Amino acid sequence: MSMSMRYTRYERARIVGARALQISMGAPPLVEMETNNPVKIARHELERDVLPITVRRDG
């Protein structure tokens, strides 16, 4: 099972949003893509399981 399958849709939205902000502020993308759209790049990074982001849950 891929890493992105274990996240809720809200967690995925938060992860993609946070990563897209990092990319738009100058962080280097972790995957090669032809687009410059930070949201598309962040979504692709999440699908490829290359993001060094973890989610902490209560309980």
TrEMBL record:
<dbReference type="InterPro" id="IPR020708">
    <property type="entry name" value="DNA-dir_RNA_polK_14-18kDa_CS"/>
</dbReference>
<protein>
    <recommendedName>
        <fullName>DNA-directed RNA polymerase subunit Rpo6</fullName>
        <ecNumber>2.7.7.6</ecNumber>
    </recommendedName>
</protein>
<dbReference type="GO" id="GO:0006360">
    <property type="term" value="P:transcription by RNA polymerase I"/>
</dbReference>
<comment type="subunit">
    <text>Part of the RNA polymerase complex.</text>
</comment>
<dbReference type="GO" id="GO:0005737">
    <property type="term" value="C:cytoplasm"/>
</dbReference>
<dbReference type="GO" id="GO:0042797">
    <property type="term" value="P:tRNA transcription by RNA polymerase III"/>
</dbReference>
<keyword id="KW-0963">Cytoplasm</keyword>
<comment type="similarity">
    <text>Belongs to the archaeal Rpo6/eukaryotic RPB6 RNA polymerase subunit family.</text>
</comment>
<dbReference type="GO" id="GO:0006366">
    <property type="term" value="P:transcription by RNA polymerase II"/>
</dbReference>
<dbReference type="GO" id="GO:0003899">
    <property type="term" value="F:DNA-directed RNA polymerase activity"/>
</dbReference>
<keyword id="KW-0548">Nucleotidyltransferase</keyword>
<dbReference type="InterPro" id="IPR006111">
    <property type="entry name" value="Rpo6/Rpb6"/>
</dbReference>
<dbReference type="GO" id="GO:0003677">
    <property type="term" value="F:DNA binding"/>
</dbReference>
<dbReference type="InterPro" id="IPR036161">
    <property type="entry name" value="RPB6/omega-like_sf"/>
</dbReference>
<dbReference type="InterPro" id="IPR006110">
    <property type="entry name" value="Pol_omega/Rpo6/RPB6"/>
</dbReference>
<dbReference type="Pfam" id="PF01192">
    <property type="entry name" value="RNA_pol_Rpb6"/>
</dbReference>
<keyword id="KW-0240">DNA-directed RNA polymerase</keyword>
<dbReference type="GO" id="GO:0000428">
    <property type="term" value="C:DNA-directed RNA polymerase complex"/>
</dbReference>
<keyword id="KW-0808">Transferase</keyword>
<comment type="function">
    <text>DNA-dependent RNA polymerase (RNAP) catalyzes the transcription of DNA into RNA using the four ribonucleoside triphosphates as substrates.</text>
</comment>
<keyword id="KW-0804">Transcription</keyword>
